[in-house]
Specification:
259 residues, 19% strand, 8-stranded mixed sheet, 7 helices, Rossmann fold, alpha/beta
């Protein structure tokens, strides 16, 4: 079941739509259960093909429902936060992207405040969710992954699960990698996914995978072992919703499965 809300934002100066996916059996458990929550960027591309880029979604609802029914993960809420259309690049990045003229005058810090100070409190007031760090996750793909990583670095101790697909780590001459090297606190579990054919250029493909591997090394040096960190490099996978959908079951199982 999907429920939508429009959340007015002081930080962004706009009203933004969020879509809440409710797991199977939600109404039955309503008075007896509190849920973990995963927040995902690019909400248009998660659930509904009619709103998704190219008509292809991450298949979030189908994948999560299947995992819940098979008891691979506990029931959770998944909140898709719509991107800002023409403002997407500006809102998701903390620094300018020299390769994208739409990324001037970045609003990454304002977006982080919107998510943590406006979206999270709204969901906590509206739904029976757990408020612990361990029960709260954030993620995204491409610029959306950059926004999730930046917000996690800017607001340590808010998110206990982090899902990064094909993150744009090259922006600002690897600004986010430099921030990551200085981080003193990381989520309890981090999932990194990337394909080897993310772009149409071989040099950019090598750069993209190489940057994700660099992030993995930073996390390893910070003490994240195999129980806390997973990297999946998928041969031949492109920069697309189809690739992120294909890896989603693995990501959710790692982040929310087990104890």
């Amino acid at each position: 079941m999907l429920i939508t809300h429009d959340i007015p934002s002081i930080y962004l100066g706009v009203t933004r739509r969020v879509t809440v996916w409710l797991p199977p059996g939600y109404r039955r458990r309503l008075r007896t259960y509190r849920y973990s929550v995963l927040y995902l960027n690019d909400g248009q591309n998660l659930f509904d093909p009619s709103r998704a880029f190219g008509g292809q979604t991450w298949r979030v609802g189908e994948t999560a429902a299947d995992l819940v029914r098979r008891k691979k993960i506990a029931p959770l809420l998944i909140v898709g936060i719509d991107h800002g259309d023409s403002r997407r690049a500006r809102e998701y990045l903390p620094v300018e992207d020299e390769r994208n003229p739409m990324a001037r005058r970045p609003l990454g810090r304002e977006y982080a405040e919107f998510v943590t100070r406006e979206v999270l409190p709204f969901i906590s007031r509206t739904y029976p969710v757990l408020r612990s760090v361990a029960a709260t996750g954030f993620g995204g793909s491409s610029y959306g992954a950059a926004a999730a990583l930046y917000t996690t670095l800017l607001k340590p101790g808010v998110f206990g699960r982090l899902l990064l697909e094909s993150p744009s780590l090259y922006v600002g001459r690897t600004h986010l990698l430099r921030m990551a090297r200085k981080a003193e606190r990381w989520p309890q579990r981090v999932y990194l996914g990337v394909g080897t054919k993310e772009t149409g250029r071989d040099d950019w493909n090598l750069e993209t995978v190489g940057n994700v591997v660099k992030l993995e090394r930073i996390l390893r040096r910070a003490g994240l072992g195999d129980r806390r960190l997973r990297l999946r490099v998928e041969g031949g996978a492109t920069h697309s919703e189809g690739a992120w959908a294909r890896r989603l079951a693995d990501a959710l199982t790692f982040l929310y499965g087990g104890r």
